[in-house]
């Protein structure tokens, strides 16, 4: 049968929250639905991709919400942060109170559907990564649409990567991002190869938005089941691409040549709208001969449960473990242990 809409007819039903997750995770999910079971976040309707004024208005509102949410998650940071400009990209350089190694660096690309999440949220996110990994974190505050569509964000990402490589050896650098940031982290490596730049020591992709065509299975199976990201991002994807082919590798890195990529950490959840993005990227990396870890968390929506649930802390610990393993060997007395919350003990 050639009908693209043919499939399994699922009777209307309620998807309950499982007992297989922590009480804190279950409470986090329950806060995202109304008493009748409808999804709070599903009420948002994205503007048309050609309504730039509407997108500017939405962007201002959402950026403010992101800043509040990230500040709440970050708590009291022990890192200092300075904003660097004039290097082809705006970078928030966060330095932890105690560095495990002056030469090591983490490059962080924030999430936000390739439109939101810049400014204050990006700055605080860099501090969180510096605290967690005990190294300098370069948070890339890349330009976003509607003012700056593709390839502006990727140009900024590559500029930031060049800046970091001028100050750190590639084997001392790990690059990562969540959601839209995962897109840019992977696309940056594709551009880096085009430019003859070396790859970093590791890559961290957290529920990465690596396929803007949204062709994966979970875009149907987790529609409205993911309480954080309940519906597709079609409009913002088209806004970002600005007429470019959504399947080209620099826009959807899933379709790029991934050979030679560094060891990669991938994470998603069984209720994540981007679950298919993540598992397909993992398989593509493995087919390319790349060492890749895939971590799927029970009932976790896009971006995690939030609020320090046991599952979120376990994920932080796994990321810290992976990042620490990417660095060149240190003397035992120089290696700081990782605590149960995933942060460097120093």
From TrEMBL:
InterPro entries the record matches: AB_hydrolase_3, AB_hydrolase_fold, GDXG_lipolytic_enzyme
Start and end residues of each Alpha/beta hydrolase fold-3 domain: 107-303
Record key words, sorted: Hydrolase
GO MF terms held by the record: triacylglycerol lipase activity
Highest taxon above the source species: Bacteria
Family: Belongs to the 'GDXG' lipolytic enzyme family.
Protein name: Acetyl esterase/lipase
């Amino acid at each position: 049968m050639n009908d693209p809409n043919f499939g399994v007819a699922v009777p209307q039903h309620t998807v309950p929250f499982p007992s297989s997750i922590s009480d804190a995770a279950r409470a986090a999910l329950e806060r995202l639905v109304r008493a009748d079971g409808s999804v709070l976040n599903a009420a948002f309707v994205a503007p048309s991709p050609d309504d730039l004024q509407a997108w500017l208005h939405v962007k201002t509102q959402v950026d403010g919400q992101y800043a509040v949410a990230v500040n709440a998650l970050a708590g009291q940071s022990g890192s200092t942060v300075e904003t660097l400009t004039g290097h082809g990209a705006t970078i928030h350089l966060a330095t932890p109170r105690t560095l495990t190694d002056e030469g090591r660096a983490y490059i962080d690309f924030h999430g936000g559907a390739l439109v939101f999440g810049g400014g204050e949220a990006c700055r605080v996110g860099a501090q969180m990564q510096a605290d967690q990994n005990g190294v300098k974190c370069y948070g890339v505050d890349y330009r976003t649409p509607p003012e700056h569509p593709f390839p502006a964000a990727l140009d900024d990402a590559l500029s930031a990567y060049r800046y970091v490589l001028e100050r750190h050896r590639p084997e001392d650098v790990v690059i990562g991002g969540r959601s839209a940031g995962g897109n840019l982290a992977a696309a940056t490596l594709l551009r880096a190869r085009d430019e003859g730049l070396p790859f970093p020591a590791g890559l961290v992709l957290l529920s990465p938005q690596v396929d803007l065509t949204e062709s994966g299975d979970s875009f149907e199976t987790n529609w409205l089941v993911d309480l954080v990201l309940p519906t597709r991002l079609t409009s913002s994807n088209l806004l970002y691409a600005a007429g470019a082919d959504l399947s080209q590798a620099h826009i959807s890195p899933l379709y790029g040549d991934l050979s030679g990529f560094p060891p990669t950490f991938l994470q998603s959840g069984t209720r994540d709208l981007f679950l298919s993005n993540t598992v397909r990227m993992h398989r593509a990396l493995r087919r390319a001969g790349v060492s890749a870890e895939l971590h799927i968390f029970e009932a976790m929506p896009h971006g995690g449960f939030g609020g320090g649930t046991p599952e979120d802390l376990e994920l932080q610990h796994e990321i810290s473990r992976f990042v620490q393993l990417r660095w060149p060997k240190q003397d035992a007395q120089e290696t700081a242990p990782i605590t149960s919350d995933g942060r460097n003990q120093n």
